[in-house]
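Figure S4 source data
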Amino acid sequence: RLENDVFTVGGIAQKYNCALKRLDWQQEQGFMSSLALGCNEVEIKRGMTTSSTAIFIPFMTRELRMDGQALYYGMNALSHNVIMADRKKLKSANGMYLGSTGSGKSFAAKRELLNVFLVTHDRIIIVDPMGEYAPLVRRLGGQVIEIAPDSPHHLNPMDVELNMTAGESPLSMKADFLLSLCELVVGGRDGLQPIEKTVIDRCVRLVYREQALGIENTKTPLLQDLYEELLRQPEPEARRVATALELYCTGSLNLFNHPTNVKTDNRVVCIVLK
């Protein structure tokens, strides 16, 4: 009867490409090995390929679950476990939202924004080309800055923070920023020439001369002050840079030629470019 049972069960297993062998005098060891105890009392070895061996490994997915100020980023498609990650602890903290139209990219970004606001103390700065984040930022008590020719909001690129840590020169940092700004304004394939950079650096230091000397109640310079200082220089390169700045000082795009009237130190700042 045992032989018949073994033959019957072996025939059924053969349909699924499985081979069964009878354990003579090893029934107890075979039973203990079949239990989920993690022990093998039957000394049988068999060569297997990698794909066949992988079937016996229950851990097929890689999980991402970090401690601390970790944020929710969705669910693992294979294990259905939540993905909790802290970007600041990763090798690269950058991220991208990719997907087709209407798949929820903006919603996912807003969800992460809200999680960062609630879980961490980080500052949040948003560059919003379509104005879709402004309502959420207002609900969070943040500052919405609209950049447009007819906008009531103004940002003065000449603002400078003199109270900086030791080893940092605020005027040197501001001069470097204004050099980059003028290079964008002037344009061209080669950017600013060495003489033009020298003239701009000289004018920046002249414009901030009173603030550098520590004179109290000094008015913060405007972009037009730099423009006028460039016009007073004898070099023709200075007039070329001043002519390029004219559109943004006295022309129709003079929105950056006003004192700053928004709170740029707010924890949540949304810059709308629509």
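Figure S5 source data
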Amino acid sequence: MRIFFRVDANKNIGFGHLFRSLNIANTIKKMYKIKEIIFLTKNNKICKNILNKNNFSFILKEKNQEEIFLEKIISKNNFDILFIDNFYPYERKIIEKLKKYLKIIMFHNLCEGSFYSDICILPSAHTEEEIINDERWKNTRFLHGEKYIVINENINILKKTPKNRKKNFFNLTITTGGSDPKGVLITLLEFLNDLKIDNFQITALVGISFYEKKKLENLKKKLANFIKIIPYSEKEFLKSDMVICTFGVSTYELMFLEIPIISIGHSEINTKASEILEKKFNSIIDLGLIDNLKKEILQKTIFNLLKNRNDLEILSKNQKNFIDGKGNLRVAKIILDKNNNFMNF
């Protein structure tokens, strides 16, 4: 079996989609001994380095349109499956054209083409009922829910590692993704710089392709001593009593680790998803869109949680077993299943 993975990673869209697709691809390669896996991706230095480090071949997208690129590559190569984890508005026409060559699996992309793929998977617990009940799903095999959420391999390893929290000390960690093009981290640090809390530390994690490096360097000179800025490392979560994160794949990974979360949206879509997740499961605290967030609200939320530690325990309790970390196994089985006998995966 030969498989194409269509996924991008860069400063503008981050690296979460690449890492979860890598987890799925590595699962297929290790468990099922399938070696013919090729990534189709835009030309990005960090992305190429990550793929090379994981020993995956790749074909770089040319500057032509997405549809032209895919049709050109797929028509010239005898592959069996195209797995798309890419936010692009694929239309019905191109998906039906590509289906003549191979099976198409859409992952976490809600567009017209999704309804005409062979399989569409929405790996989330925040999908709206209106979307789930859309009549157009009759044209495809539609799967959704938290059991298809794919966790970063490093996070899976952390789950088995004992937490390393200090007694009588509170460590608040901030993570805003690999690139953070809106500069959410900058805004949060400015809002929290004058916090007055004893035995308290903020650890800000800077992504591998952080967008606002110059602004951050200038801000560092003004930051209080209780704020520490370091390169992103998942191991820091083991020391965290609570994490502020921009909503996305990281939110579910932190829930998997059972760490209390303050969730902030960096786009209207993410903000809506964060709101739904909070209301449905009471497993995170949603503070809405970063553009609308007030300094007083953020500080008050932190003060209240420190004052009422039971609320933190409730969040962690509601996260327990919510995600089992086996999404990569389920998705790998779906990709490789020739008879579509996967409804119970």
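The mean pLDDT is 94. The CA atoms of residues 191 and 294 lie 8 Å apart.
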